[in-house]
Design goal:
By secondary structure, the chain is of the alpha/beta class. 38% of the residues lie in helices and 16% in strands. The strands form 2 sheets. The chain has a 6-stranded parallel β-sheet, with helices on both faces. A 3-stranded antiparallel β-sheet has the order 5-4-6. Helix 1 crosses helix 10. Bound molecules: zinc ion (ZN).
Length: 242
């Protein structure tokens, strides 16, 4: 029933902008961060994923990222990623804003993509500015160094203690304001400034739909609320809109 309502909402409220979090990628075997079984339950993000940790001990940070890159390189897009790419192709989805760094939206075929926390697509040298693509970074593991100057590369993901890229978050906010429907998928909406995007949509007169297994602070203000997996839900919505 809720899936039908969600499909109706997507049909009626255009443009639809999608906001995704870790919950869409767990079905690809990628652990999330904040759940009890998530990554941050096992390691302290300040020790392995903060800019201070990277500057103090890049080797330790790469020990963590190297394992993640291996897992991410082996992961495949799932039904949720593929359904969103199909919905975009058919004109039902204007853009996908994602908190994920895993490239799975891109690999599924999403084109209008705003990656607010950066991406593992590249790593950069903080000294000379050299940018190294993912495949080469993986080859350079366990400790990828700049091919030009030898400094340890930094993954182009937003680390704790770093600000989000200004132009990227501005684009996300612009999309949230323009959205007649903001469809949140697999995000617990806890991490700002992304967690503030639904408020921007609502303030501008748009509607909110949420597909997430856990509660979020916006549940009471959502027009549709589905507590189920992203893959099955989005696949069903895409089928209804064919
Ligand atoms: Zn360099």
């Amino acid at each position: 029933m809720s899936v039908e309502r969600l499909a109706e909402l997507v049909r009626a409220r255009q443009p639809c902008v999608v906001l995704t979090g870790a919950g869409i990628s767990t079905e690809s075997g990628i652990p999330d961060f904040r759940s009890p079984t998530g990554i941050w339950a096992q390691v302290d993000p300040m020790e392995v994923a903060s800019i201070d940790a990277f500057l103090a001990d890049p080797e330790k940070v790469w020990e963590f990222y190297g394992r993640r890159l291996d897992a991410l390189a082996a992961a495949e897009p799932n039904d949720g990623h593929r359904a969103l790419a199909e919905l975009e192709e058919r004109g039902w989805v204007r853009a996908v804003i994602t908190q994920n760094i895993d490239r799975l939206h891109e690999r599924a075929g999403s084109r209008e993509l705003v990656e607010v926390h950066g991406s593992i697509r590249t790593a950069s040298c903080l000294d000379c500015g050299e940018v190294v693509p993912f495949d080469e970074v993986v080859r350079l593991l366990p400790l990828p160094r700049c091919p030009r100057c030898g400094r340890v590369l930094k993954p182009d993901v937003v680390m704790f203690g770093e600000l989000l890229d200004e132009a990227t978050i501005a684009r996300a906010a612009e999309l949230a304001v323009e959205a007649a429907l903001l469809l949140v998928v697999g995000s617990s909406l806890e991490v700002y400034p992304v967690a503030g995007l639904p408020a921007e949509t609502l303030a501008a007169g748009g509607s909110l739909a949420i597909v997430n297994r856990d509660e979020t602070q916006y549940d009471a203000r959502a027009s549709v609320r589905i507590r189920a997996g992203a893959g099955e839900t989005l696949r069903a919505v895409a089928e209804l809109l064919r």
